[in-house]
């Protein structure tokens, strides 16, 4: 598809939408009704500089958009943009709902506790409601590329959506991802990590998607669980194991995958705030980083 990305002028924004411009980055907040989720979804749109050339603008969706608010993401992206450390981005911070444990599931089905039942509905919201809204609302027919990111369970949701829709998404960022998501309790006698971790199994049974790239982040204090007693916390083991599955599919470490391990990094917003600029500069490196 070909077309123009047109940011409406300042006065249009002020007449029709809730806009904040406190940091130099325009942030539009939209309440988007969803038939698939049976709720209204709050989305913060962090807009690129209106002078950006349409063909240079990429789209990044982020689960748990309320965490972007909490970390002051408008200041972060404003600084990165003004110093030319990243190329132009339109970023949609999608706030989670009260039923987060079910919406941030996987397309293949719920986990061993029955969580994630609305995962397929959430994916339909993204593809059939949110993306069409963005194209229509911002008068765009195409972006340079489209990516997805998320924190914790939102990271699992993001990589599941990206993996299952390679024709739509080219990059994904997984921060402290809940890659332990499994179809059988880890304490069960017949538990097998290769078989029962659902994202690992999905990659193993799937195909290589040329052009897709993956960014993973973990903190050494992300958790304390060590189910196989190897001295490495499960979140790091799960992440490294998934990267091994991707390697087996033909993805290249360094070229198609990037792993960021933060010493003393925790499972929290301040840690993800430290990791996000690394992800953004990895995915959309600007002239200021050359």
Shape verdict: globular
The share of residues in extended strands comes to: 15-25%
The largest beta-sheet arranges its strands as 1-2-3-5-4-6-7-8-9
> What is the radius of gyration?
19 Å
For the report, how would you describe the main beta sheet? 9 strands, mixed
> Would you identify the CATH architecture?
3-Layer(aba) Sandwich
Verbal overview:
The chain is of the alpha/beta class. The chain has one domain (10-289): 3-Layer(aba) Sandwich (Rossmann fold), CATH 3.40.50.1820. It is built from 10 helices and 9 strands. It has helices at 10-16, 65-70, 73-82, 100-103, 119-137, 153-164, 193-196, 198-204, 234-248, 269-283, and strands at 18-20, 27-34, 39-46, 58-63, 89-94, 146-151, 171-175, 213-221, 257-266. A 9-stranded mixed beta sheet has the order 1-2-3-5-4-6-7-8-9, with helices on both faces. Strand 6 (146-151), helix 6 (153-164) and strand 7 (171-175) form a beta-alpha-beta unit. The protein is globular and about 60 Å long. 39% of the residues are buried.
């Amino acid at each position: 598809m070909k077309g123009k990305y047109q940011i409406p002028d300042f006065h249009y924004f002020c007449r029709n939408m809730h806009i904040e411009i406190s940091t130099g980055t325009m942030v539009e907040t939209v309440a988007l009704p969803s038939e698939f989720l049976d709720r209204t979804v709050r989305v913060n749109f962090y807009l690129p500089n209106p002078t950006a050339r349409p063909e240079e603008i990429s789209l990044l969706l982020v689960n748990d958009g309320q965490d972007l608010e909490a970390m002051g993401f408008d200041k972060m992206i404003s600084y990165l943009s003004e110093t030319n450390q990243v190329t132009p981005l339109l970023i949609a911070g999608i706030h989670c709902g009260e039923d987060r444990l079910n919406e941030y599931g996987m397309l293949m089905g719920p986990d061993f506790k029955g969580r994630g039942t609305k995962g397929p509905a959430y994916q339909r919201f993204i593809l059939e409601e949110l993306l069409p809204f963005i194209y229509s609302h911002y008068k765009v027919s195409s972006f340079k590329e489209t990516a997805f990111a998320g924190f914790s369970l939102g990271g699992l949701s993001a990589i599941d959506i990206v993996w299952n829709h390679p024709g739509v998404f080219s990059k994904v960022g997984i921060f402290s991802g809940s890659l332990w998501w499994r179809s059988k309790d880890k304490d069960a006698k017949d538990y097998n990590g290769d078989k029962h971790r659902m994202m690992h199994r999905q990659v193993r049974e799937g195909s290589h998607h040329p052009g897709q790239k993956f960014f993973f982040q973990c903190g050494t204090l992300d958790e304390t669980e060590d189910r196989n007693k190897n001295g490495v916390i499960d979140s790091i083991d799960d992440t490294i194991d998934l990267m091994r599955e991707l390697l087996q599919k033909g993805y290249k470490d360094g070229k198609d995958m990037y792993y960021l391990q933060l010493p003393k990094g925790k499972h929290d917003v301040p840690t993800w705030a430290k990791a996000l600029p690394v992800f953004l500069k990895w995915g959309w490196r600007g002239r200021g980083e050359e």
